[in-house]
Design brief:
Active site: 255
Strand order of the largest sheet: 14-15-16-13-12-18-19
Enzyme class: oxidoreductase
CATH topology of the largest domain: Aldehyde Dehydrogenase, Chain A, domain 1
CATH class of the largest domain: Alpha Beta
Domain Aldehyde dehydrogenase: 23-479
Number of domains: 2
EC number: 1.2.1.-
Oligomer: single chain
Keywords: Oxidoreductase
């Protein structure tokens, strides 16, 4: 497959361990979701290579942690600049292996770069404290790098989820062993190439590619050398990794599944709410953990909202993400499409009304599905209970504020939620009452490098991005200094 890259050297098919590209006899195909065409045959490594990567990270970290913060900052800044300079190539790689439309891929590369820039600056701001105490002693708090970091990242945001973890780890003085998703390893390898060009010392960023995620995960969780595990993915896998990390008492951060509601109250700006719901629900063909999974609409405006919303959904252009005219790309693979289709069929069989969409688009390829709107959905249907991860919008009614809050909280998840209202009192009441780590009020574009990203309940632990994002990569050490006699 010809990706038409300006810099073909960004396309790697080998793992990156201890500053060297590592091949393997066993390889696995990385395919374009839109066409099914193989882009590259990538090195399929496992537990043994993971152990080597951990050892390399431990060696590299010994000197990296001692380097002045300004030096770490400078190297991260160079990496940031190279990512932006190669934005178009990185976006094309992402669209080829992940499927999202080019416009979204370009935005993700900018988003990914922003975390590297942010944490390049935060490297110089890892402050300690001097705590007042008795006259003959001083209490000092310092922050030190936690140790070797294992990072496991998903396929839906194959660049941003890497930099959001690797940026703070390197800034704090840690080294990283990264396991990218087998569906989208090319973005990770391209970022490693640019990190190498930026002068990031060998062994600090290791990328282990492979299809045996369980074996690689076990190696990472069982290692005493790995002191921190950061994971973005499903709640089921996150729980397993948490359990496996218990024996070595690792520091962990988990960004897991979501079931985001968007609450549209009767006093909302209806056009703004429709636009927000469209932008959130159908981003990356609905394959985001923070996208609006359930649309909860006040009964008095339900029909008006549904009419406007469905009309907008019908205007999507579905196709290959490489086509600049496409506004909705494929799902990641045929299995994902089959799951989405089954959820729609189950809902319709249970009484939901299909307003638009609801069909696979076989004429485009095996992973395409129509953007879909379901009305008259109830809380016992799969599309209400489960994370859809596809271009399907279930729309439900509520009668009053209390019912809206109860419906929003009726889930094990608690990552992101959104509400549209003009009532400032309601803004405060609802924002405080709903059990979510992030709340967007009259806005769905709520993520950036400046703010903390993370959830409650089964949606995870810890926060990424912002000034809080480096906390999980440091240990807080208290030092008591005695024998200080007053003059």
């Amino acid at each position: 497959m010809n990706l038409h890259l300006h810099d073909p050297a960004l396309l790697h098919a080998d793992s990156f361990i201890d500053g060297q590209w590592r091949g393997a006899q066993q390889r696995f195909p990385v395919c374009n979701p839109a066409s099914g065409e193989t882009i590259a045959e990538v090195a399929d490594l496992g537990a043994a290579a993971t152990r080597e990567a951990i050892a390399a990270a431990q060696r590299a970290m010994a000197s990296w942690r001692e380097r002045p913060a300004t030096e770490r900052s400078t190297l991260l800044r160079r990496w940031f600049e190279l990512i932006l300079a190669h934005r178009e190539d990185l976006a094309r790689l992402m669209t080829a292996e992940q499927g999202k439309v080019l416009a979204e891929a370009r935005l993700e590369i900018t988003y990914a770069a922003s975390f590297v820039e942010w944490f390049a600056e935060e490297a110089k701001r890892i402050y300690g404290d001097l705590i007042p105490g008795p006259a003959d002693r001083r209490a000092i708090v310092i922050k030190q790098p936690v140790g070797v970091v294992a990072a496991i990242t998903p396929w839906n945001f194959p660049s941003a989820m890497i930099t959001r973890k690797v940026g703070p780890a390197l800034a704090a003085g840690c080294a990283v062993v990264l396991k990218p998703a087998a569906e989208t390893p090319l973005s990770a390898l391209a970022l490693a190439e640019l990190a190498d060009r930026a002068g990031i010392p060998r062994g600090l960023l290791n990328v282990v590619t492979g299809t045996d995620a369980e074996a690689i995960g076990r190696e990472l969780t069982a290692s005493d050398t790995v002191r921190k595990l950061t994971f973005t993915g499903s709640t089921a896998v996150g729980k397993k990794l948490l359990s496996q990390s218990a024996d070595t008492v690792k520091k962990v951060s988990m960004e897991l599944g979501g079931n985001a509601p968007i609450l549209v109250f009767a006093d909302a700006d209806l056009d703004a709410a429709v636009q927000g719901a469209i932008a959130s629900k159908y981003r990356n063909a609905g394959q985001t953990c923070v996208c609006a999974n359930r649309l909860l609409v006040d009964d008095s405006i339900y029909d008006s909202f549904l009419e406007k919303f469905a009309a907008r959904v019908a205007r999507f252009t579905v196709g290959d993400g490489m086509d600049e005219n496409t506004t909705l790309g494929p799902l990641i693979d045929p299995r994902a499409r089959a799951k989405v289709g089954a959820m729609v069929e189950d809902s319709v069989a249970a009484g939901a009304r299909l307003v638009t969409g609801g069909q696979a688009l076989d004429e485009l390829g095996p992973s395409f599905y129509q953007p879909t709107v379901l009305a008259d959905v109830t809380a016992d249907m799969r599309v209400f209970r489960e994370e859809i991860f596809g271009p399907v919008a279930p729309v439900l009614r509520f009668r009053d504020e209390a019912e809206a809050i109860a419906m929003a909280n009726d889930t094990e998840y608690g990552l992101a939620a959104y509400l549209y209202t003009a009532d400032i009192g309601r803004v405060w009441r609802v924002s405080e009452a709903i059990e979510y780590g992030m709340v967007g009020v009259n806005e769905v574009a709520i993520t950036s490098e400046l703010v903390p990203f993370g959830g409650m309940k089964a949606s995870g632990l810890g926060r990424e991005g912002s000034r809080y994002g480096i906390d999980d990569y440091v240990e807080v050490k208290y030092i008591c200094m005695g024998g200080i006699n007053p003059a």
